[in-house]
Amino acid sequence: MTSSETAPPGTPENDRVRLTHRQIVTVLSGLMLGMFLAALDQMVVSSALRTIADDLRGLTAQAWVTTAYLVTGTIATPLYGKLSDIYGRRPVYLCAVVLFAVGSLLCGFAGSIHQLAAFRAVQGLGGGGLMSLAMTIIADITSPRERGRYQGYITAVFAGSSIAGPLVGGVFAGRDTLLGLDGWRWIFLVNVPLAALAVVVILRVLHIPHRPVRHRLDYGGAAALAVGIVPLLVVAEQGRGWGWGSPRALVLYAVGLAGLLVFVLVERRMADAALLPLRLFRVKAFRLGSVLHFVVGAGMFGAMALLPLYLQLVRGMSPIEAGLATLPTVVANVAVTMLVGRMMSRTGKFKVHLVAGIGSLTVAMLVFATLRADSPLWQVSIGMLFMGGGLGASMQTITTLAQSEIAQRDMGAATASVNFFRSNGGTVGTAAFLSLFFSLSGSRIGEGLDSAAQDPSYRLLAEEPANAVPLEGVLRADGGLHLEDSAFLGLLDSRVALPFLEGYADGTRIVFLLGAAVTLIAFVIAAWRVPDTVLSSD
Which parts of the chain span the membrane according to its record (predicted)? Predict the structure, then answer.
């Protein structure tokens, strides 16, 4: 039975597809290749983003490259849930892969940081469906108790991409040119043949029954959601330059809030056809899962965007070195995910793992908040171990929580909805973390340079030609700083570079302290509100 075929007449609407373990693993192989495509891209881009931003002269605007992808992925995710309920999982999943490939091809020929961000938005339209549809299909073919076990396979995909991504990113970003193009452009172009392979594999192995569900597509809700989210994200990105209470910021606050209000009104009118069916929020487990996905997603994506910057800007690592330095996160993530998945499958309990995972994330943030310019690498690794273990224990259990009380006919919309909240939290977290980081770092660097200038020996060292030339492109005539390109750090004497390194380290500490406060909120919610239920094995 293919994905376009319907179930036999008389089949109960909420029956789950019954497959053997071997059949489930076969289906997973198709899903995992599609997800590997998106996960590898995120890791490669993250590890090479500093090089890309320097080449396009847009270091402080690099948040747009990440947030543009997350914005479109966030808005598209609920639509994928509805579309897959109507037309089947496989054709919609294939469309997501193709869209992702088209966006990748465009990114490979971007001429500026803002053009790259626009093309990343196209890429995000496809990427938004790859994760949510995979999780939906897993929910279609497994019981609540089994899901942790099979979601471990998905985590293995991310672990593999975490290892391969920095290596691939480092190789391409480290090449000036390759076949006549800038080396970093191949980071995106390599996705095209990978996407073609994913299409072939999905067509061969992704065969699951599909029972069409009659839905109207909520285009009005999608438009209202875009009007609500995009202005708020623009403020998160540009607020440090405009001023958080400036007239432009206030106008965008008002537009965003109005858009969100219209979105809620549209969703109420659309009822079951809504992009995010409001009746799902009457289910406590779904409501809690959505909130936790948002809060944990903000902390997780924010940390994942900021940590490579610390390793490269402050510690002076190359993209490939920074990627390899994150291996403790990968090891802890894989080990804990597999362990927690098996324990959930055996006992049916998940709250203890959920609380412990979010607690571990909070500890990781606190460890990162102690980092300085001269902190030993083992201190960073300790934080990475806590972060990897926390993600391994929390992300799969939050998804399991959100799905645990949802009827099968709503599984596509529900899974897409909770992934929407995670992506939305990640978008807000990434934009806010990076915006605050560059804002705080810039001011701290300025203060550090003013203080260092009081030392005659520092002034003499800075006036030496080997240091004065790189500094000319950084120190503005009006006393400001031009930090769009960080390549100058590698040209300075270490003593002259110290105020810059300490400024970036100060910004890192403050932002990670904020991240700890965010994940602590999630810890309190999980410990206080999530019931200690036992998952069904049916």
Answer: 24-49, 61-80, 92-111, 117-141, 153-174, 186-205, 217-236, 248-266, 286-310, 322-340, 352-371, 377-402, 510-530
Amino acid identity of residue 204, one-letter, is: R
Q: How far apart are CA 297 and CA 293, in angstroms?
A: 6
Condensed to tens digits (0 to 9), the pLDDT of residues 329-382 reads 878 887 888 888 888 878 888 899 999 999 999 999 999 999 998 899 999 999
Mean pLDDT of the chain: 80
Q: Cα–Cα distance between 20 and 258 in angstroms, integer?
A: 49
Pick the CATH number of 21-218+275-442+509-529 from 3.40.50.720, 1.20.1250.20, 1.10.10.10, 3.40.50.10490: 1.20.1250.20
Structure tokens at 427: 């978008």
| Residues 6+ positions from 202 with CB-CB distance below 8 Å | 30, 33, 34, 90, 93, 94, 97
Q: Could you give phi then psi for residue 481, rounded to 5 degrees?
A: -125, 140
Question: What number of CA atoms fall less than 13 Å from residue 337's CA on the CB side?
Answer: 24
Sign, Cα dihedral of 7, 10, 12, 17: negative
Asked if residues 144 and 402 have their Cβ atoms less than 8 Å apart, the reply is no
Q: Please give the C-alpha separations between residue 93 and each of 3, 98, 399, 431, in angstroms, as whole numbers.
A: 11, 9, 19, 28
Do residues 163 and 327 make contact, with C-beta atoms less than 8 angstroms apart? yes
Q: Give me the residues paired with residue 475 across strands.
A: 481
Provide the sign of the torsion angle of the four alpha carbons 77, 293, 37, 151, taken in this order.
Answer: negative
CA dist 207 → 4, 91, 98, 202, 323 (Å): 9, 11, 19, 8, 36
